[in-house]
Write a structure and sequence with these properties.
11 helices; 3 domains; Immunoglobulin-like; Glutaredoxin; elongated; alpha+beta; redox-active center; four-stranded mixed beta sheet; disulfide bond; Thioredoxin_CS
Length: 363
């Protein structure tokens, strides 16, 4: 029986050596305050939302270490401690070669990849600083913005097959003016394209592009109800104001409710210049909608789908990916702009519109 145990141990060591011999291995050299001597340190590698593997060791003389095959597909996590006690952790990519980790409240990871990424972030920040200075000096920034875009493209392309490059691509998927997104997306493996986060961000990007194509088109009409239960259509309100903002919201939407006071101020500031608002609630539950209306100032008309229209159909018509969301119409019902970044976005659009209007009037 003892012989069998030694044979098994030898086989395990041989397999471990074979793995690290055939593939590049990481070598984590960790340090932590010596007061944690004897504490358990755990290394989690994760794929999607599933823990791929777990390794653990103990702190000895303020040090700990891990060795294993390179894994760059997702970030891994080193953790010491358990809630509600103090937990020290660090996120890292398990790249081949030595990785220095200092576990503390603001843990530090030092490896070629983390240093390269930090240099990338610093360079991007410097590009943005130069662009900001140029804008203040009213200089042309088109070439500088293009250089920043190309620099980011080269970095993402280099790392597109690991978690870092893929993560950067997804974080900037909502930048519909990025000319390189589609090219980088096509570089992803079929496995990556089937990931939930990739599919989700790609669909959001497609809808964002669709929103931009709404500008210049005529509004889409549909039937709703007012607070008295009467059927109304958007066309009943179009043409009564120089500008009409269709405000899509819902009683259950916290951000929608939070921006209400800001919309009131914008309405009061511009109503005498022909600005109007039409609230369109995506509530299916009429009682919830009416309950919120009872607490609002109700300075403008409010309508609700209340089962009169399919929520999914409305979202598709206006490419709504989330609320609050709105579109700004001119007097003819043409969509001037899509407002998908809250009241601040609307304020900026109105300021620009009425400044241009003042200049036209002054001529």
């Amino acid at each position: 029986m003892k012989v069998n145990k030694y044979i098994l141990l030898f086989c395990l060591l041989a397999c471990s050596w074979n793995i690290c011999g055939q593939n590049s291995c990481f070598h984590i050299e960790g340090t932590v305050d010596s007061k944690y001597n004897g504490a358990l340190v755990t290394l989690f590698t994760i794929t999607g939302n599933v823990i791929r593997s777990v390794d653990s060791t103990y702190v000895e003389n303020g040090c700990f270490g891990f060795v294993g095959p390179e894994y760059l597909y997702e970030k891994s996590i080193i953790s010491l401690g358990n809630y509600p006690d103090t937990v020290l952790s660090a996120e890292l990519y398990l790249e081949s070669g030595p990785i220095k980790v200092e576990l503390k409240h603001n843990s530090v990871v030092c490896s070629p990849l983390t240093l390269e990424y930090q240099q990338f972030l610093d360079s991007c920040a410097e590009y943005r600083r130069q662009i900001s200075v140029a804008l203040k000096n009213k200089e042309d920034v088109e070439d500088m913005e293009l250089k920043l875009c190309e620099y980011k493209y080269r970095f993402k392309k280099k790392h597109i097959h690991n978690g870092l490059g893929r993560g950067l691509l997804l974080r900037e998927a909502n930048d519909i003016y990025d000319p390189y997104f589609d090219e980088l997306y096509e570089m992803l493996s079929d496995r990556d394209k089937c990931r939930g986060d990739v599919k989700s961000e790609y669909q959001i990007r497609k809808k964002g592009l669709a929103q931009q194509f709404l500008a210049g088109k005529q509004f889409m009409d549909f039937t709703l109800i007012d607070s008295l239960g009467n059927e109304k259509r958007i066309s009943d309100y179009v043409g009564k104001n120089e500008l009409l903002f269709l405000d899509f919201w819902a009683s259950w939407c916290g951000p929608c409710r939070a921006q209400e006071p800001h919309l009131v101020r914008l309405y009061q500031e511009y109503k005498d210049r022909g600005f109007g608002i039409l609230g369109i609630s995506l509530d299916v539950n009429t009682a919830s909608w009416l309950s919120v209306l009872a607490k609002k100032e109700n300075l403008w008309p409010e309508l609700c789908i209340a089962g009169k229209e399919d929520d999914k159909r409305i979202r598709e018509l206006y490419s709504i990916t989330g609320i609050p969301f709105g579109v700004l119409l001119d007097k003819s019902g043409k969509i001037i702009s899509v407002v998908n970044a809250g009241w601040q976005h609307l304020k900026m659009i109105l300021n620009e519109y009425y400044k241009a209007d003042d200049k036209r009037s002054a001529k």
